[in-house]
Amino acid sequence: MTIDAWLDLSALILILAGAILCLTAAIGLLRFRDVLTRLHAATKPQVLGLILICIAIALSLRSWPVVAFLLPIVLIQLATAPLSAHMVGRQAYRNGTIDEPNLIVDELADSRRTPPAAGG
To answer: Is residue 30 one of the residues assigned to a domain?
Structure first.
């Protein structure tokens, strides 16, 4: 087998693995019942799946301009997915729409007792 065939095979495997991870993220969004587990399902496998698919595209096309195009996509995804998940989780905590009995550690319990404008 030539090096091109090996690169194509590895790209195929990476695309398949990335697609499976993205599919599990979508299934997790539909199946999980509370906000925190849905956020976990939406961020972790989806970001890894996108990274695997971008690596597969770069291996398949073997072009530096393609890598230069895909690199900002991966970096923006790595920056925005955790930030948006944190914001949604924080708002769900403030609204009281999370499953509090299942929280092992509640680091925000003190901030809930003190109103935000109370200064304390």
So the answer is: yes
Q: What is the DSSP letter of 99?
A: -
Task: Give the tokens for residue 114.
Answer: 């003190």
Q: Which residues contact 115 (CB under 8 A, 6 or more apart)?
A: none
**Mind listing the pLDDT tens digit for each residue in 10-36?**
999 999 999 999 999 999 999 998 888
- CA 94, CA 108: separation in Å to the nearest integer? 9
| Residues of the domain holding 25 | 3-98
Please give the structure tokens belonging to residue 49. 């799946």
Flag whether 62 is in a domain.
yes
pLDDT digits (tens, 9 = 90+) for 34-50: 888 888 888 889 999 99
Chain segment 89-103, per-residue pLDDT in tens: 888 888 888 877 777
Q: How many domains in the chain?
A: 1
- Residue that is written with structure tokens 């770069």 in the block: 58
Q: Which residue has the tokens 């920056």?
A: 79
Structural domain includes residue 108: no
Which residue's entry shows tokens 């230069």? 68
Flag whether 60 is in a domain.
yes
The reported pLDDT for the residue numbered 114 is 60
